[in-house]
Amino acid sequence: MTIQDSPLKLSDYRDASNRQSRRRHLHQPGHMFRERYRIVKVLASGGFGVTYLAQDGGIPGSPPCVIKQLCPKVSNPLSLERAKRRFRKEAKVMAKVGSHSQIPRLLDYFTINDGFYLVQEYVPGQVLTREVRRAGPQGEREVKQFLSEILPVVKFIHRCKIIHRDIKPPNIIRCGDDGRLVLIDFGGSA
Q1: Which tens digits make up the pLDDT trace of 127-141?
Q2: H or E element, residue 42
Q3: Is 166 a residue of the active site?
Q4: In this structure, are residues 34 and 55 in contact, taking their beta carbons and an 8 Å threshold?
Q5: Which of 15, 166, 177, 178 is catalytic?
Q6: Would you give the DSSP letter of residue 41?
Q7: SS3 track for 85-139
Q8: pTM above 0.85, yes or no
Q9: Residue ranges of the domains in the chain?
Q10: How far is CA 70 from the centre of its chain?
């Protein structure tokens, strides 16, 4: 690993002024991206970005979609360049694996100023964290069922020579339409 490929430091993102700056730059409901995507609401926000529920006005019926915004609030040009490379890599990974029914399809990606945006298929449902909190500890039968549901997508991404590196309940959605598990957040994949 060269210096240029070294991992981003959390300190590049997480100082107090950057957090306050990020809050000021949250896009409000109604905001339009690229005269196509209208923000409906914020779904989540964290140390590296914000995820929005949006409507795709470029498709008849304006179906829902998810816009993931990477917010690299860094002053170091080298750190910004690394963030750009990670963004492009995540877009390539999503394009490569998005044909699987347990992975949201990549619909679009773009940059605006120093913000990076991925537009993905919206999967209605809840993250597995909520299911685990509600149901509590699971028995052997339930764990085996979970593994039988999640392992096909893990095998698929491994066949594509991709390692997710962040499989955990907040990155798995139980689809409200058909109950399937959907793996999200390929930002840390290798």
Answers
A1: 999 999 999 989 999
A2: strand 37-45
A3: yes
A4: no
A5: 166
A6: E
A7: HHHHHHHHHHHHHCCCCCCCCEEEEEEECCEEEEEEECCCEEEHHHHHHHHCCCC
A8: no
A9: 10-121, 125-183
A10: 9
